[in-house]
Design brief:
By secondary structure, this protein is of the alpha/beta class. Among the domains are: 2-134, Single alpha-helices involved in coiled-coils or other helix-helix interfaces; 153-353, no CATH class. The protein is built from 22 helices and 25 strands. It has a 15-stranded parallel sheet that branches. A three-stranded antiparallel sheet has the order 1-3-2. The chain has a three-stranded parallel sheet with strand order 17-19-22. It is globular, with a radius of gyration of 29 Å. The model is unreliable at 20-26, 379-404 and 791-795 (pLDDT under 50).
């Protein structure tokens, strides 16, 4: 909670500092009030900053005081933003005053009300400051908070070894061993733990095994991730487990929760906002954490989103969240969820820490309510009394707000989106709405978006997979917006051209749909004409003028993920390669969808991301930190059958997806030499040979291989010492071809020492005896999954 409050106050101080520097434009009588608010908030911020550096639990009085500080910071920031943007006087000078006189006259009542509001805030700030002294609210004695451990490849490999040790215990249980010893995992615990803690850990293991094996695994994960505990803490846990009515899973989970870093606890509690969701998107969750200000910037990380990714990975490692679908070790988790016991625990801990109301924290409760209403599962808001309604919020409360037209459904009930708009109008003044996720909602009209665009505090707006078709120009009112997600919508491509959002960091667009017999087509929106220099993610956007638009993209020095859709003309390819070269120091992910070149472009030959004349400069300055690459050519335009040579020098490239690239066997050899490649997806027409062969010494880090309707491939071979870490193979056959699984179709399964799962999808003749025998003889006993077009998956 201290991190969140500190973030809110820190943001306000920046605004107040800018306002005071511009003294000439302050209203009479307001300057002194603003200076007082700044001085008081500055003192409070120092106190909060000290709290964020201490590893200590906040008592009830301290949490109540921090909540009051955060509420005041939000209201004050709203006041100052309205004033500085809409109501501030003109620059000094006679003619400037004359031209601004009509505005001054029109806004005089609003400016007077704002001055009164700031004076009231001054009194509230003074009282909150006195209250801390009155109740002797101080920082509890505690040791400094340990910093999150910096991660590198060695750390990740050690964690993988530890997780494998835990999995071995499960394998032993499946073979009839009733009581796992966890001896290997305990031996791999960091040496930071007290040397005499071993006997205590063994006593706890006896209490957890065999009935609560998962609890023991979670405890060992916590001790591995947080090796700063003491023997006394472990003995206290042992005493609690020895109680007659002890709930072992709950007591262990409380211990593990206590070992989370403070801001990680806030991020875990935020998962209560997804109680109605079957699965939670990893990227959406991380961006919402950032928008809500729940994260602290870790050393060695450039962006808050990277801090969010680290937090997510830590929660997965510790067992608080788990992948929604099985993934191989090292494979990126797309979505997650919580097991029922963890979910119940997180809800309970959120309520207990929010002692003021005895319910979920305010920002969780409103997020859940809005989400329920938008999905059509919430209760209609109470009708307002006949007297004057509360204004929309402080920023719109300065002038009259017209009522939005509302529509009833056929049964007479208010439409869910109208209910959302009404809910937004009735939010308390102290509540800062940072996140609005309308993903998957129906009935979203332009008039609803116009109302939503009045919520000036929004930092995250998701319209993903909605039926919205137009984006109003009022979207530019959301000056704080950092994430705009319009994926899987039918927006007009030109609707994003007019976007001018100075703080926008993530623009996510593109709608991938089947088109007849073609597996994928991508429709998307145009590149905004004005892009802020803080842009970090831009995908997927349509490039119409490669020379102008890609030149602008090349100046985005914080851009980490780029996805573009463009025609395969020679000029476009040159401009794209130059842009990639300019972004060589910051680009982490690249997705390129090339459509058919214009009719008059050259001789209509093949397309590749490589300039034969060497003028693009990318060979001398490749994107050396690139981790993910996605390439799709328009069917029939790629005739090179090879990969651009600059890919060979990408030392960190770990994830590759290819479509319609017509890759040859030589291209597969290039991929096999990439030293960091963990995940390879070969989709429709990405490969030209009828035999995919992974040869000796290749794909040393590969853990996941997907082959999806790659024609005319009918055989897969794994040679000895190829892909030693491959855990999961998925092969989907061409839907127009009936396959026969027999000896030789998949050979060398016994060479895949780490294989855990083989999945076969498509219309094939049921002769799986060979595969079953090969898997049965495998020392890891991999799982076989089969699905057919006319039935559910078989195992």
């Amino acid at each position: 909670m201290a991190d969140q409050t500190h973030s809110a106050v820190d943001s306000l101080l920046g605004l107040l500092t800018g306002a005071i520097k511009d003294e000439a434009r302050l209203l009479g009588g307001v300057q002194g009030d603003i200076q007082f608010i700044k001085d008081e908030m500055d003192s409070m911020n120092g106190f909060l900053l000290h709290l964020t550096k201490m590893e200590t639990e906040h008592d009830d009085q301290l949490r109540a005081w921090m909540k009051q500080v955060r509420d005041i910071a939000y209201i004050a920031q709203d006041c100052m933003e309205v004033y500085m943007h809409d109501l501030s006087p003109p620059e000094s000078g006679f003619w400037a005053l004359i031209s601004h006189l009509p505005v001054l006259l029109r806004t005089a009542p609003a400016r007077r009300r704002l001055a009164i509001k700031i004076r009231e805030l001054k009194d509230r700030v003074r009282e909150v400051g006195k209250r801390r002294l009155r109740y002797d609210i101080t920082v509890p004695a505690a040791k400094p908070k340990p910093k999150p451990v910096s991660k590198d490849s060695t750390t990740d490999e050690k964690r993988e070894d530890f997780l494998r040790a835990l999995e071995v215990e499960d394998d032993h249980r499946s073979t009839g061993v009733p009581s796992p010893s966890f001896s290997t995992a305990i031996h791999l615990l960091p040496c930071n733990l007290p040397t005499d803690a071993g006997p205590v850990i063994e006593k706890i293991r006896v209490k957890c095994v065999p009935d609560h094996v998962q609890s023991m695994k979670m405890l060992l994960r916590a001790l591995y991730a947080y090796p700063h505990g003491t023997k006394e803490e472990l003995e206290s846990l042992e005493d609690k487990l020895n109680g007659k009515a002890a709930d072992v899973p709950e007591e262990v989970m409380v211990f593990c929760y206590s070992k989370l870093y403070t801001h990680y606890k806030s991020c875990l509690q935020y998962l209560t906002a997804f109680l109605e969701e079957d699965s939670i998107s990893r990227t959406s969750l991380v961006r919402r954490w950032v928008a809500e200000g729940l994260l602290a910037r870790d050393e060695g990380l450039q962006t808050m989103e990277e801090a969010g990714e680290r937090c997510f990975n830590e929660l997965v490692f510790r067992g608080f969240v788990c992948p929604a679908t099985p993934v191989a070790t090292g494979q990126t988790i797309k979505s997650c969820n919580m097991e029922s016991s963890v979910r119940d625990f997180v809800v309970a801990i959120s309520k207990s820490e929010n002692f003021v109301s005895g319910a979920l924290p305010t920002h969780f409760r409103y997020q859940i309510d809005i989400r329920k209403i938008a999905r059509g599962r919430g209760q209609p808001p109470q009708k307002a009394p006949l007297q004057r309604q509360r204004p929309w919020n402080i920023w719109d409360g300065l002038c009259a707000v017209p009522r939005e037209p509302q529509q009833d459904d056929d049964d007479g009930k208010l439409h869910p989106m109208d209910m959302v708009v009404q809910k937004l109008k009735n939010l308390p003044e102290e509540y800062r709405l940072n996140v609005l996720d309308l993903g998957g909602c129906t009935g979203l009209k332009k008039r609803h978006l116009k109302s939503i665009c009045k919520v000036l505090s929004l930092k995250y707006l998701s319209l993903r997979n909605t039926d919205v078709s137009r984006l109003p120009r009022a979207i530019n009112n959301l000056r704080k917006l950092e994430t705009l997600d319009v994926r899987q919508t039918d927006l007009r491509p030109s609707d994003t051209a007019h976007i001018v959002l100075p703080n926008l960091k993530h623009l996510l667009a593109g709608s991938i749909r089947p088109a007849g017999d073609e597996i994928e087509s991508l429709s998307t929106v145009q590149m905004p004409r004005k892009i802020g220099r803080s842009m970090e993610i831009l995908r997927h956007v349509q490039i119409l003028d490669g020379k102008v638009e890609l030149h602008e993209v090349g100046h985005l020095k914080q851009l980490r993920k780029l996805g573009v859709v463009l025609s395969g003309s020679e000029d476009n390819i040159k401009h794209l390669l130059r842009t990639i070269s300019k972004l060589s120091e910051c680009l982490r992910s690249l997705s390129v969808w090339i459509t058919a070149p214009p009719p008059m472009a050259g001789d209509g030959g093949g397309v590749t991301l490589d300039n034969k004349d060497g003028t693009d400069g990318i060979s001398s300055s490749p994107p050396k930190y690139l981790e993910s690459l996605n390439i799709k050519y328009f069917k029939g335009t790629s005739t090179s059958g090879s990969l651009p040579p600059w890919i060979e020098g990408l030392k960190l490239l770990s994830n590759i997806t290819l479509r319609d690239t017509q890759l040859s066997a030589n291209g597969l050899r290039i991929l096999g030499k990439l030293e960091s490649l963990c995940c390879l997806r070969l989709r429709r027409d990405s490969y030209t040979e009828d035999n995919i062969s992974l040869k000796k010494g290749e794909f040393q880090k590969l853990q996941f291989l997907l082959i999806d309707q790659v024609c005319p491939t009918i055989r897969i071979a794994f040679e000895a010492d190829a892909a030693p870490k491959l855990q999961r193979v998925v092969w989907t056959f061409d839907k127009n071809k009936k396959m026969e699984i027999m000896a030789g179709t998949i050979s060398g399964i016994d060479n895949l020492r780490s294989l855990k799962e083989l999945e076969l999808n498509g219309d094939w003749i049921d002769r799986q005896d060979y595969v079953n025998q090969a898997l049965a003889a495998h020392p890891e006993h991999p799982l076989l999954r089969c699905s057919f077009p006319d039935s559910s998956p078989r195992q």
